[in-house]
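Hey, can you fold this one?
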Amino acid sequence: MRIAVLGVGSIGAVILGCLSDTDAELVAVSRGQRSLELANEGIVLNSPEGAIEVIPPERYITVDSEAGPINQSLRKSCDAVIISGKSTSTPILSQIAEELLSEGGVVMSIQNGLGHAENIASRVGRESVIGGTTTHGAWRGETGSHWVGRGSIRMGNLDGGPANGSAESLYQYLSEASLNPEWDLDIQRSIWTKLLINVAINPICSIAGVRNGALLESTYLWDQALSAMSEASSVAQASGVDIGDLDLEELLGDVAKSTSENRCSMLQDLMSGRKTEIESICGAIVSKGEDAGIPTPRNSILLALVKGIESSSQLD
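Sure. Predicted structure:
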């Protein structure tokens, strides 16, 4: 099976690195300097247990998404494409996925936020798209990619049903790679549940400049996070999403505790002067709330504040 990973940042590097232990043929799609690093230096992966593994560049084919048309030999050659890049890159990554995907292949998005799978489906067809979320934690620094927390990958057909064909094969490879895949018959619910967590943690910790665990130490930050989460839950239900009987406080507390030492991806982006995914997180809640007639003042404020910080960092 040939598997392409589009966006080899933190989580993308973890997935590609783990898949390198299988017999899958691998394609790494990145851009610019990151693509040069992958092609010349390989991937340095620091495991949660402290081990350091170097995946040599010969183990995968590197594609620079900014270097012009994809090589003809790679077109329509991938049985599975995993999109792990930033939500802001979804349009170009969807186009690349369409070029790489073989007949009968599948594309899986594990990006934060809403709407990515549907955008990809508009390029490759809904039957070829798998929705996904991940709880693996990672960040990338000068000493390589740091896999800081083992989690799982939930994946499923957009319209439900069991895994089959290329989807089933991808599931087996992810399992062999010790990435703990779980097939989900209601992936939309899982995507929304992950969004509730992102809405609560990412903007609050990013604005305050703190690690996730700070939410448990400050009543003020906790209340702000829970308020944003509650708004998002109301929007989900008004949008026809069955999120079940989730205990929001318990869910937020469990995630904040298990990731207490993590800097969320949004904070990492702000610290590095990169554009964040706030539009597909709080922005998605605001947009869906408007459609459903649900007010979202907390998410609107968080959206504006993060975008303000983004603008200031770009001016600097």
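The two ends are 46 Å apart (CA to CA). Let me know if you want another pass with a different chain boundary.
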